[in-house]
Design goal:
This protein has about 475 residues and is of the alpha/beta class. The protein folds into three domains: about 1-90, Double Stranded RNA Binding Domain; about 100-145, no CATH class; about 145-470, Alpha-Beta Horseshoe (pyruvate-formate lyase- activating enzyme). It has 16 helices and 18 strands. A nine-stranded mixed β-sheet has the order 14-15-13-12-11-10-9-6-16, sandwiched between helices. A five-stranded mixed β-sheet has the order 2-1-3-4-5, covered by helices on one side. The chain is globular and about 65 Å long. It starts with a strand and ends with a helix. The model has no long low-confidence stretch (mean pLDDT about 95).
């Protein structure tokens, strides 16, 4: 699909919008061309806004008056959106909204113009469905109470463990298979502890207040119990944890969960863990490259309960290859019987670097419809079981242009998930692939500091990485 851009700079939103309808096609953005190759979408801003769609046997041209830059961008997208809905017979549930953080947008509109105006803009300006507006409204209210806990000097700490037993076929995160990178794990842990100590000195000097800690990956529980203990002890001994509201470790893959690791995690003041099956269908697990069974997940969950964990999250994915509606329903029903405090329901996202995408697995209309039915069932089931939606976000190339929602029992919402998605306060990242996002106190400006992505890079260039951490001081001292 070719998108021709004449006399405007709205290419980013238009490209993302077109991808909603043509997720499997290569999209070319071409500026100021005199010739147009089919299939194409020709967009122009002159004395009027115009969008011409020429796809297959379908040809349509729409125009609208010029207004101002923000409205012109929205209106040009609207012209394209309405034509593409007609051509494809697809009406995305989130309308032409392509952003990652719809709740943040909704909150901004609600704060500045009121709830009624926010509802109207989502419905009539972005064509979001009533059901998605409703879930956005509920989620925003839950988030707001937690966001209000944050202060100008608050921050959260993210710790990256970039190792996994194997790579899942849908995964695009930077991580290393332990089978191939086992020799890197011990030196990585040593340097990670050094980075944590160095970071703790910086935040202490600046008087920053630690609100949450989140250890993710990868799969943190690929570390041994001793290695896990070392990292967690470093956090507890070097940072001021007197203000800490939440400490999370992703146990992630059930095949990495052992009693000694769970005991180590529990003894280091961690109060929230994630054990993530993605599905309880063994054949689907095999298809997506997970090296564990449904029974192993249930055993790991029960083991965590026996060790004493009172807040457990489980991740599920709707729309996995070979999964069907009845299988997803069975998975969710069985998870609800376990009664975890949190259940996160993701929609499959076909990331470019994931092996599913590389292997040419397409996203089709039937997949989107089936996944939407899965999410609809999940919403009703979880409401009926007294779960509430506490955070919501979206990703590019999601099946059906749907969403990921974190559900929790009241009082068990993950603060870190809300803070990172809302960009409420500074998030300081340690470890390979971690990104520090510095937020100006009382403002909206964000500065990013990137750690090296790969474990070998992190190890080889560690002194350079530490020097980047000094930018935190420079940012706050300004």
């Amino acid at each position: 699909m070719n998108i021709y851009i004449l006399n405007h700079n709205y290419h980013y939103e238009l490209e993302n919008l077109v991808r909603l309808f043509y997720p499997n096609e290569k999209i070319n953005v071409i500026r100021n061309s005199d010739t147009f190759e089919k299939p194409y979408i020709l967009t122009e801003k002159s004395d009027v806004l115009s969008a011409e769609i020429n796809v297959g046997d379908f040809i349509e041209k729409k125009t609208a008056p010029v207004c101002d830059d923000n409205e012109d961008e929205r209106m040009l997208c609207e012209l394209v959106y309405k034509s593409l809905c007609k051509i494809t017979a697809v009406t995305p549930p989130w309308g032409m909204l392509t952003g990652v953080r719809p709740i943040k947008l909704y909150r901004s509109l609600k704060t500045s113009k009121g709830e009624e105006s926010a509802d109207s803009y989502f419905k009539n300006g972005l064509f979001v469905s009533d059901s998605k507006i409703n879930i956005a409204k509920i989620t925003e209210k839950v988030e707001k109470k937690i966001i209000d806990l944050s202060r100008n000097n608050s921050f959260s700490l993210y710790i990256a463990i970039p190792f996994c037993p194997s790579r899942c076929r849908y995964c695009s995160f930077v991580q290393a298979s332990v089978e191939r990178s086992k020799h890197l794990v011990e030196p990585y842990v040593d340097l990670l502890c050094d980075e944590l100590k160095y970071t703790a000195e910086i935040v202490s000097k600046l008087g920053l207040r630690l609100e949450t800690v989140y250890m993710g990956g990868g799969t943190p529980t690929t570390l041994s119990a001793e290695q896990m203990n070392r990292v967690l002890q470093t956090v507890n001994s070097c940072f001021d944890t007197s203000t800490l509201r939440e400490f999370t470790v992703e146990a992630g893959r059930p095949d990495t969960v052992t009693e000694d690791k769970l005991i180590s995690i529990k003894e280091n003041k961690v109060d929230r863990i994630s054990i993530n099956p993605q599905t309880l269908n063994d054949s689907v697990l095999e298809t997506i490259g997970r090296r564990h069974t449904a029974l192993q997940m249930i055993d790991a969950y029960k083991l965590a309960r026996n060790v004493g964990f009172e807040c457990i999250n489980t991740d599920l994915i709707a729309g996995l290859p070979t999964d069907i509606y009845e299988s997803f329903v069975s998975t969710l029903d069985r998870i609800c019987e376990l009664a975890p405090e949190c259940i996160t329901v993701h929609t499959l996202a076909m990331k470019r670097s994931a092996s599913l995408t590389q292997d040419g697995t397409p996203i089709n209309k039937e997949d989107a419809e089936r996944t939407a039915e899965m999410l609809s069932y999940a919403e009703q089931k979880l409401f009926d079981n007294d779960y509430i939606p506490y955070y919501l976000y979206r990703q590019t190339r999601m099946v059906g242009n749907l969403e990921n929602i974190g559900w929790s029992k009241k009082g068990y919402e993950s603060l870190y998930n809300i803070y990172v998605m809302d960009e409420t306060h500074t998030i300081i990242g340690c470890g390979a692939g971690a990104v520090t996002k510095l937020k100006s106190p009382g403002g909206t400006y964000l500065k990013r500091i990137f750690n090296f992505k790969y474990p070998y890079e992190y190890i080889d260039r560690f002194s350079e990485l530490l020097s980047r951490k000094n930018e935190i001081c420079t940012f706050y001292e300004k």
